Amino acid sequence: MGMNHVNSRTPILQSAGTPIKDTLDRPLADLRISVMDRCNLRCPYCMPAERFNDNYQFLKRQQQLSFGEITRLARIFSRLGVNKIRLTGGEPLLRKDLTELISMLADIPGIDDIALTTNGTLLSKHAKALKQAGLNRITVSLDSINPEIFRQMSGGREDPKTVLQGIEAARDAGLSPIKVNTVVQRGVNYSSVIELLEHFRHTDVVVRFIEYMDVGTLNRWALSRTLYSSDLIESIQKHWDLEAIDPLYTGEVASRYRYRDGAGEVGFISSVSKPFCGDCSRARISSDGQLYTCLFSNQGKDIKTLLREGYSDLQLEQNIRTNWHQRQDRYSETRGTASSSASDPQRIEMFYIGG
Q1: Cα–chain-centroid distance for residue 36?
Q2: Which of 3, 21, 36, 76 lies 20 to 30 Å from 245 when distance is taken between CA atoms?
Q3: Residue 262 pLDDT > 60
Q4: Among residues 319, 334, 355, which one has the least CA distance to residue 278?
Q5: Cβ contact 132:172 at 8 Å
Q6: How do residues 83-129 score in pLDDT, each as one tens digit?
Q7: For 26-37, what is each residue's pLDDT tens digit?
Q8: What order do you get walking across the sheet with 30-34 strand by strand?
Q9: ω before 92 within 30° of 0 (cis)?
Q10: Are strands 255-259 and 242-245 parallel, antiparallel or unpaired?
Q11: CA-CA distance, 24 to 328, in Å (whole number)?
């Protein structure tokens, strides 16, 4: 494939550097980059142990995007309106020398915010270096601090004490405020919600509860296991009074609440009961260089091949621009309808694309 291929297939819709919007008038503002498809946990709703055992073939190093390739793409995305980057996985802290990548991204003009999503088990070791490299914020996935429930939800690996120590190390390093993301499943970890909130009350750690979603195909999702945020709020209100507060910015995925007694903040991400597709400004790049425009996508745009075949920055930009201009994803709004892709066996898995 020669470089002229992009010119014949990809129209130049706007001049380089012009902010772009999709078919539903949604701008491109956030880029989530998966740097690693591996993880040291085996959470059943993401990477079940029976599938991802010692024989499973994860990506080899040469199949992953290099730090140089990631940085080059980030520069191009910044010219298209992206000002926030989040690094995800798998578990991103398994990627060797990740701080080097963060330093490279921090030098890109227009990138105002670099965040990281991690399971927290390796955070104690890396928190200080991450902050020094230029990381602004961190989100820790933690489904329970109850040891028994935690092990059930992590595939029998690690201990919540390790994650809590990592969160404290991140606070000490100045990566505050920290967000803790908790996927709530009815009959699994719902019983430990109050214990989790009690632990983080009176701190600057914001716990955010996520409705259990049908991301990918491996988790055998059923609506009966999803606890709606409204029901969860009602349960929490039996212990502490909450009041809704305004979002920090347009497109914020979590509905924000605070304790009336001043003990902190709680968030609720309600992708199932109250979809927020209308404000979604996020693009995602998988660790092997596929560009996805929705968490529930069934196919991506192969950016890695274009990178490695010598496409110029302008040609790459026009490919990305065209991809976003054609975007019409709104899966959470159409879930359960004839146009939904819920039964599509090719839908991308969570560990591959990040949250």
Answers
A1: 13
A2: 21
A3: yes
A4: 334
A5: no
A6: 999 999 999 999 999 999 999 999 999 999 999 999 999 999 999 99
A7: 999 999 999 999
A8: 242-245, 255-259, 265-269, 206-211, 179-184, 137-141, 113-118, 84-88, 30-34, 282-285, 290-292, 301-302
A9: no
A10: antiparallel
A11: 6
Q: What is the pLDDT of residues 269-302, one digit of tens each?
A: 998 888 878 889 999 999 999 999 988 888 899 9
Query: Could you tell me if 79 and 196 are in contact, meaning their C-beta atoms sit under 8 angstroms apart?
Result: no
Q: How far apart (Å, rounded) are the C-alpha atoms in residues 205 and 189?
A: 20
Q: How far apart are CA 139 and CA 141, in angstroms?
A: 7
pLDDT for residue 12 is more than 70: no
**Angle at alpha carbon of residue 88, lines to 145 and 191, rounded to 5°:** 20
Q: What are 104's two structure tokens?
A: 């490279």
* Residue 239 pLDDT exceeds 80: yes
pTM of the predicted model, to two decimals? 0.89
Strands 255-259 vs 265-269: parallel, antiparallel or unpaired: antiparallel
* 265 neighbors 257 (Cβ within 8 angstroms): yes
